[in-house]
Amino acid sequence: MAQVITNIFTTTGSSGSLLANKPISLQEVSWHDTFNDCWIVIYDRVYDITDFLNEHPGGEDILVEHAGRDATVAFRGSGHSAQAIKALDKYLIGELPQHERIFRKPGGIQLSDLPT
Ligand code: HEM
């Protein structure tokens, strides 16, 4: 059981290294917002998709529209397959620090978490 819980909060990239512990802030993600350097956030995890842009079946423009930002709603809303979700793993570089997470925050988001 302990193993199952651990696995919910940790992820390995294609290299097999443990990347879940590398916190990358939303501010740092925002610096990577171009065709040549494109990071996005999906479900609180940070992906460097620069090398994936020209492989995306939905085209690169739509990805760059979300460069440097959270793309969870767009990713989810365009009905991606299980294969697409699996493809994300390869580009994982870290995840948001606890206080910036929306989806995987213990106890969920509270009103007091919102900026005033
Ligand atoms: C790194 C993140 C993403 C990956 C790995 C990815 C992967 C894929 C894959 C594999 C497909 C082919 C269909 C499928 O298997 O579901 C696809 C299609 C598509 N994706 Fe993405 N996608 C990503 C992000 C996004 C984002 C942020 C959007 C923004 C709306 C988007 C929009 C689309 C659209 C519209 C299609 C359909 C293309 C068509 O059928 O003509 N994708 N994506």
TrEMBL record:
Protein's cellular compartments: Membrane
Keywords, in A-Z order: Heme, Iron, Membrane, Metal-binding, Transmembrane
Keyword Transport: no
Pfam hit, one: Cyt-b5
An annotated Gene Ontology molecular function: metal ion binding
Gene3D superfamilies: Cytochrome b5-like heme/steroid binding domain
GO cellular component: membrane
Predominant localisation class: membrane
Domain Cytochrome b5 heme-binding: 21-97
Family: Belongs to the cytochrome b5 family.
Protein name, UniProt field: Cytochrome b5 heme-binding domain-containing protein
Gene name as annotated: 109538542
